[in-house]
# Entry
Amino acid sequence: MSKKLHYIYDPYCSWCYAISPFVQYASSHGVEVVLHGGGMITGERIAPPSAELRKVLKDNQPAITSLAGVPFSDRYYQMLDQDWVMNSAPPTAAVVAAELAAGKGLEMISAIQVAQFQTGSPIAEQSTLDRLAANLSLNNEAYKSAYTHQLDGAITVHFAESRTLMNKFEAKGFPTLLLEDDGNIRAIVTQGVYGNQPRWDDALGLS
# Structure
């Protein structure tokens, strides 16, 4: 039985961006990556980032770069000072639709993370998601139909299923990584793999 890495993420989560090299490594070494959007910012939480959150993000990102080696650009920091709205539903719907339409969910979440943290693009805006879809050759009817279906309500079910999975394994936040191997599922401690490639094979049971 092939290994599966269940990756519970949110597009706005900086630590999910930090874990992305590990997730990409798993995919490139024959581990099937199963994506679960957790819906960190939905409902009443949909809003521009508060001044307090903007400060936390600015203060924390250098430490993330130091630990995991992922960059945050000047354009990202400039975006933090602008008016934009955080909403997990549209970018997560794009990831789900990309997977359903073309098996490109991992490529889409990677593109969304780069768009936000490296190019400073608001990832809930339709223009941003349309551009990313086009870059992945997903500007077709199958993707558009799947994306619309998600925003029409299916994404709420997806979020609920992800939360159920988190609760089952007593996960506290994002990212959560669960390795499924021969019918058994165990959590991967994320702190042990951020930027620590020598430990990746062991964490994935590949060594």
